[in-house]
Automatic annotation (TrEMBL):
Stated name of the protein: UDP-N-acetylmuramate--L-alanine ligase
PANTHER family linked to this entry: UDP-N-ACETYLMURAMATE--L-ALANINE LIGASE, UDP-N-ACETYLMURAMATE--L-ALANINE LIGASE-RELATED
HAMAP family: MurC
NCBIfam families: murC
Pathway: Cell wall biogenesis; peptidoglycan biosynthesis
A GO term from the CC aspect: cytoplasm
Naturally occurring in which organism (per UniProt): Streptomyces botrytidirepellens
Residue ranges constituting the Mur ligase central domain according to the UniProt record: 117-306
Keyword Ligase set for record: yes
Residues reported to bind ATP: G119, T120, H121, G122, K123, T124, T125
EC number, as in UniProt: 6.3.2.8
């Protein structure tokens, strides 16, 4: 099912506005690998931009009308690009087709067996687990992920196999463009308040996504999450759709029997329903998930179920999932200094914050969990600020930065105080810090040997990890100089 509205040659010489973004760069990379002459622009240079240039893409820094080549066959945009962007205005003036990123991704998936991973949380991790494990088995999938696996630019790959794994973003309803053979829905919650006013709108949007699954395809969906169970009931009755559930619920087709934490990994035992049959086999399987936390174990089981839906033997896929060791910003260990581990978390929704803090607590041992949290978006903080604060109460201490606006304009009266006040009401040790540059010194002064520090949020809080490590290292060096042994030597 080819995407509607794209001319056959529209992606021959595309120009990407914001080409260095997590979602845009992946689509651009696959197009380059398929032989397209890709160009684009971004507001700043970055390792991702450098990786695209190495592949052969032309990337301009800064946005200007002259960046759009005279022979560009399309201009690719995401929902984050404003209508007054100079390059977008130029494209319209010159009659160059404007293509949304989701339409470009749908075109890339055409002719493959797509797995589209949707849900309010866990999309990047689950997509990554599938991409890595399928590659480990030699199936050479194509994939587009919303984050880098190991090095900049590893968020996407054009593979020679028939499977294409991609994130399906519900935030702007762009996942309605895809026609997957297998759709995964991990959970269904209210988020993206600028685009959804109620849970009814969320359910309607996810139901439209399910309706796009190809005839004879499979919906893999959580049997535990209340919103997912509600959605399952809403889409029941379609005869040409197989529904495959997973989770700890007694009626799950792929049932999670046990999740045993081992430091920053887990051992998961599942039972596959007899009805799965085919090459998947039924019975119990135990395998390792190389990232901590029950929610990541469930992501791995969703990946296992999706593989089974495409007749990838579960007993082969399960051990291959252990080869996934994480994706940048998803509980990514940034380093250790002065016996303090610094970990980066993309969590920005209350459910994600609580899940990551519970996961990391298991790996902290006797140490404390210290969080540097940056609320993301004014609209999200307005609706969920209280819940964010409640989740932060799971940490031993938190420092909260000002809101990261991303694409949004400020909303009067909406500040990070909404999060801080709620955290304090729930007994949290929480501090406000408006000066971002003060954070490394503040955290270095708080942290003790054995502690874990999390930089948490979807904004530029991630950049603080290396700065905190550097300050911890400096503190350690000064301490060594002051020690009696150093003075005696």
């Amino acid at each position: 099912m080819a995407p509607a509205g794209i001319a056959p040659d529209a992606l021959d010489r595309p120009h990407f506005i914001g080409i260095g973004g997590a979602g845009m760069s992946g689509v651009a990379k696959v197009l380059v690998q398929r032989g397209a002459r890709v160009a684009g622009s971004d507001s700043k240079d970055s390792p991702i931009v450098a990786a695209l240039r190495e592949l052969g893409a032309t990337v301009h820094i800064g946005h200007a009308a002259g960046n759009v080549a005279p022979d560009a066959t399309s201009v690719v945009v995401s929902s984050a690009i404003r209508a007054d962007n100079l390059e977008l205005v130029t494209a319209r003036e010159r009659g160059i087709p404007v293509v949304h990123r989701s339409d470009a991704l749908a075109a890339l998936m055409d002719g493959h067996r797509p797995i589209a991973v949707a849900g309010t949380h866990g999309k990047t991790t689950t997509t990554s687990m599938l991409a890595v494990s399928l590659r480990t088995l030699g199936l050479d999938p194509s994939y587009v992920i919303g984050g880098d696996l190991d090095v900049p630019g590893s968020s996407a790959e054009h593979g020679g196999g028939e499977i294409f794994v991609a994130e399906a973003d519900e935030s702007d309803r762009s996942f309605h463009k895809y026609a997957p053979e297998v759709a995964i829905i991990l959970n269904v919650e209210l988020d993206h308040h600028a685009n959804y006013a109620s849970m009814d709108e969320i359910y309607d949007s996810f139901r439209t996504f399910v309706e796009r699954v190809r005839p004879g395809g499979t919906l893999v969906i959580s049997a535990d999450h209340p919103g997912a169970r509600e959605l399952t009931a809403k889409v029941a009755g379609r005869e040409d759709l197989r529904v495959l559930t997973y989770g700890e619920a007694a009626d799950a087709d792929v049932r999670v029997l046990d999740v045993v934490p081992h430091g920053l990994t887990s051992e998961v035992t599942v039972r596959l329903a007899e009805a799965l049959g085919g090459g998947s086999g039924s019975g119990e399987i135990t395998f390792t998930v190389s990232v901590p936390g029950r929610h990541y174990a469930h992501n791995a089981v969703a990946a296992l179920a999706a593989g089974a839906a495409l007749d990838v033997p579960a007993r082969e896929l399960a051990p291959a999932i252990a080869s996934y060791t994480g994706v940048k910003r998803r509980l990514q260990l940034k380093g250790t200094a002065a016996e303090v581990q610094v970990i980066d978390s993309y969590a920005h929704h209350p459910t994600e914050i609580a899940a990551d803090l519970e996961a990391i607590r298991g790996g902290a041992g006797e140490g404390r969990v210290l969080v540097v949290f940056q609320p993301h978006l004014f609209s999200r903080t307005q609706e969920l600020g209280a819940e964010m604060g409640e989740a932060l109460a799971l940490a031993d201490a938190s420092v909260v930065l000002d809101i990261y606006p991303a694409r949004e304009d400020p909303v009067p009266g909406i500040t990070s105080a909404l999060v801080i006040d709620a955290a304090a009401r729930h007994g949290a040790d929480v501090t406000a810090e408006h000066d971002r540059s003060a954070i490394p010194g503040l955290i270095a002064g708080m942290a003790k040997p054995g502690d874990l520090v999390l930089t948490m949020g979807a904004g530029d809080v991630t950049d603080l990890g290396p700065e905190i490590l550097a300050r911890l290292q400096t503190r350690r060096a000064r301490s060594a100089l002051r020690s009696p042994a150093s003075r005696e030597s």
